[in-house]
Amino acid sequence: MDAEFALQLLVNGLTIGLIYALVASGLSLVFGILNIVNFAHGEFYMLGAMLAYFVAGTLGMSYWVTVVVVVLAAGAIGALLYDILLQRFEGSNVERGVLATLGLSMVLQNGAIFLFSTTPRLTRTEYSFKIWEFAGVTLPLTRLFAAVLSVIAFALTWWALQATQTGRAIRGVSQNREAALMVGIDPKRVSRIAVAAGIAFAGLAGAALAPVYSVHPTMGFAFVFKAFAIVIIGGLGNFQGAALAALLVGMVESFVGALASLVIADAITFATMLLVLLMRPEGLFGRGVRL
Amino acid sequence: MSPPLLSVRDLSAGYGDEPITYDINLDVQSGTITTIVGSNGAGKSTLLKAIYGLNRKFSGTIDFNGRNIETLASVARFRLGLAFVPQGRCNFPLMSVRENLRLGGYSLRAMEREDAIERVTEIFPILRQRMSVLAGNLSGGEQQLLEMAMVLMISPKLLLLDEPSIGLSPINLSLVLENIQRIRAQGVTIIMVEQNVRGALAISTDAIVMDLGRIVVTGSPQDILQDERIAAAYLGKRAAR
Ligand SMILES: Nc1ncnc2c1ncn2[C@@H]1O[C@H](COP(=O)(O)OP(=O)(O)OP(=O)(O)O)[C@@H](O)[C@H]1O
Ligand SMILES: [Mg+2]
Fold this sequence. Notes:
The complex is a heterodimer of chains A (291) and B (241). With 291 residues, chain A is mainly α. Chain A has helices at residues 3-34, 41-58, 63-85, 94-116, 141-163, 165-175, 177-182, 187-209, 219-234, 239-259, 262-279; strands at residues 131-134, 137-140. In chain A, a hairpin with a 2-residue loop joins β1 (131-134) and β2. Chain B has a single domain, classed as Rossmann fold. Chain B has 10 helices and 10 strands. Chain B has helices at residues 44-52, 74-79, 97-104, 110-123, 125-128, 140-152, 170-185, 197-202, 221-226, 228-235, and strands at 6-15, 18-28, 33-38, 56-64, 67-68, 82-85, 158-162, 189-193, 206-211, 214-219. In chain B, the strands form 2 sheets. A 6-stranded mixed sheet of chain B has the order 6-7-8-3-9-10, with helices on both faces. In chain B, strands 2-1-4-5 form a 4-stranded antiparallel sheet, with helices on one face. In chain B, β1 and β2 (18-28) form a beta hairpin. The longest helix of chain B has 16 residues, at 170-185. Chain B is globular, with a radius of gyration of 17 Å. Chain A binds chain B through residues 165, 168-169, 171-172, 175-176, 178-186, 287-288, 290, and chain B through 54, 74-75, 78-79, 83-86, 90-95, 99, 102-107, 147, 150-151, 153-154.
């Protein structure tokens, strides 16, 4: 393997890893605050991609307008998801909440099949087929933007969690709900914000990847299982851990996928998940860095 | 006498379908320390939670500082100056002491928040040396002080403390009791539940004995400690401590 090829694989692994980080940390955010594993998370990624297809393809809006529209819509849908569904399962009914998200996932997936059919569609934007070249490495612009958007979203959220009162309150509710009530935090308001952000992340990933991959109703399904593996490897509810694990999985996929096969790459990812569950249930990076 | 800061009338409260505490009538004057004692399961925590609005009210009224509060959510009661430190550890273990205090002042503006941190760390100087330590790594006594400091950030009028000395060593116990007196000196009225009957009553102005969900005796701490029938019937061996 020459250096140029290795560099290309590194860049590919990094870009896909960053997108995984976006989906996985959204999942982690929702779990961290509600203790509910959101099985419908992949469907929100799918809906984000569908909406992007509609806004960019059918309405002919620009790439950046599309991204903004999808993120805002996904955030609003996340707030509704919390108000209508998830808040009913807070605290004592977590298991039922998980089953409810599984049901929701099926409803959304089949609803999308009914409305859009299973035909995969490619989203055209003004950046489609444009390529960025640097030091012999080529990268489609849409992939580059997807990676950059992930980094921006992640950095912004990380900063907000550490340095703003609302971010601190999100971490507070996730660490100790009773203590949150003690200091006058309204856990519902804070949970709604966290869920909205988590779903906005899924929507952003969908919008960013719509011009990269084809858009179809079951696209969230495979994606979300990988996100689960990432979240478990990174430690349930661990926001940063999810991001690190996602980069790891992206790298494995890029290198093993190119040198052996994608099937083996997936096998490695899920075997790692099993090993972590067996040997380090708190995640590869420990509890110390939880939300 | 001025009107009571807290006035509870015929309150029944509990969880799910059944009340745990019944017919609670209680008046608390500003500037007092009231200690509630009683055996395990007597409903002491349930009563404090009912005053803060964390469980289900079946009947009765609660007036606080001239306002009717029994229909308000706990967040709204908090904003009126009512604070509650629950039984057991109740802080954000993976955040530093400073961050915990900042969250204590969640409802304050940024400037007020930093001033309030100055103020509460003056009351609890011990926290000053621990500002960047994770709350979960503090000793039990320090965590209890931190939790009191967190709710003092907003200068509450009435502070409800549920077993502040639970699980503490004798040294930490006197540390906590001493600090409760300092909080009172700041003009905060206190209702606390305590199992360390003697230590708690020694710093109290009023005492309440609960049994089987009801208030069975109210009086001065001295009367309660000296009445052997009360001690034998309700306080058990604990009064000897
Ligand atoms: N969340 C809850 N749901 C249902 N029942 C509860 C709940 N919390 C407490 N109880 C019940 O209410 C009764 C009184 O409990 P409470 O905690 O008020 O007693 P306590 O006087 O504070 O006791 P302790 O000294 O052990 O703290 C107990 O029988 C308990 O089982
Ligand atoms: Mg109790």
